[in-house]
Amino acid sequence: MTANAGISLAGKKVLVTGGTRGIGRGVVLALARAGADVLTCYRNESEHVGTLERELKAIGGDHHVVRADVGSPEEIDRLIGECRTRLGRLDVVVNNAGVISHVPFADLPVEEWHRVVDTNLTAAYLVTQKALPLFGESASVVNVGSRVATVGIPLRAHYTAAKAGLAGLCRSLAKELGPRGIRVNVVAPGVIATEAELSPEVLARYRQMTAVRRLGRTEEIANTVLFLASDLAGYITGETVNVDGGI
Ligand code: NDP
């Protein structure tokens, strides 16, 4: 398989939220290698920003890495303004930015509920809504959900509720925006190997839960996003695609 899975996004203008690390970074690189011009955002300054900028420069194209916290409606307005100024229009939006925390439900503070729901769900609603004027005759929205949205998991009720909400948002938007040529889908990763620190015991348990006995790779999520973003998936909308190694 080639670096861009043999799929071309040449000339497409793309926004990926949360693209400096983990799955988002994999998505940004895959879409850039497929020929898209990509604008991505992050929340905190870190060495990941410069690293991604260098990687994008090596690929070539008109790419931009900007700071914008998608947990804030004002910052989302600014982010979409950056897309308008720097890219001119949008063909693809990938709502990837997400946060998670592990809290017993009985102790879950309302502030933490809002932080997780705002970043994982409300941001996807606002980014997609505010991107609408930048879409042309066709567009693809891909939301990064989670496999736990359908199976549930202890200590993550807020996260699970937000990700399940993302799937419902996707199904309704697919029907409402389909006549305008806008497709909306969800990619639901299982357990993906990122920099997140997990103990060897937890990793072994996660591996054992999968049919293929390994964690997923960020490129495997990115390739699925790339496919759904592309015209090859032109008849797929309102779907959730599980990429979970057969959990
Ligand atoms: P990481 O924590 O590794 O990276 C998250 C990225 O999103 C970073 O670039 C981060 O930027 C950015 N980000 C987080 N919050 C915001 C915000 N408020 N505004 C702007 N950018 C933000 O996450 P993963 O790669 O693990 O996860 C990516 C997506 O995949 C998430 O939606 C997650 O829920 C989902 N997912 C992940 C799984 C996994 O196993 N990793 C499994 C299932 C779903 P910064 O560096 O500035 O913080």
UniProtKB/TrEMBL annotation:
Instruction: Report the domain of life of the source organism.
Output: Bacteria
Location of the Ketoreductase domain: 12-195
Q: Which residues form the signal peptide?
A: none
Q: Which PROSITE patterns match?
A: ADH_SHORT
The similarity annotation says: Belongs to the short-chain dehydrogenases/reductases (SDR) family.
Descriptive protein name: Short-chain dehydrogenase
Species of origin reads: Streptosporangium pseudovulgare
